[in-house]
Please model this.
Amino acid sequence: MSELRIAILTCSDTRSPAEDTAGQALKELSTARGWSVVEYRVCPDEHDVIASALVEMADVFCADVVFTCGGTGLGPRDVTPEATLSVAGRAVPGIAEHIRAESLRVTKRAMLSRAVAAQRGKTLIINMPGSLKAATETFSFVADQLEHARDMAAGGGHG
Model:
């Protein structure tokens, strides 16, 4: 199959694209794997804005995978998981479980993450942390499975 189509949505009230080190790192890591970044943006921590951006990235930009950055903690404005689930057809809990399990090897604070992974049509949406270090680590935990996930979502076998 063709290369993966990646979209990146940073959810933050405090970061601009110039200050978004985590989102920029995900762009670099994706292109280093030969994947195409078809859309990148930063939006405020607002449920409806995040949900609308996710729908556009999946339905208009036809991203295979959308990485969100930030908004997955316990803060009152952290609404990325809720926005993700509101536009997704089904959850993919194994991804978030794996990310938390691997992240707990690095820091006990990983247990405070509410990040989810879900599918909207054929698009896989994965909530990532907002910090550069955590987003980079999280990418390394899942990247090798994303092409297979795309193939499965397109109706391919489990092989």
About this structure: The chain has one domain: 5-153. The two ends are 15 Å apart (CA to CA). The domain at 5-153 is CATH 3.40.980.10 (Molybdenum Cofactor Biosythetic Enzyme; Chain A). Strands lie at 5-11, 36-43, 65-69, 90-91, 117-120, 123-128.
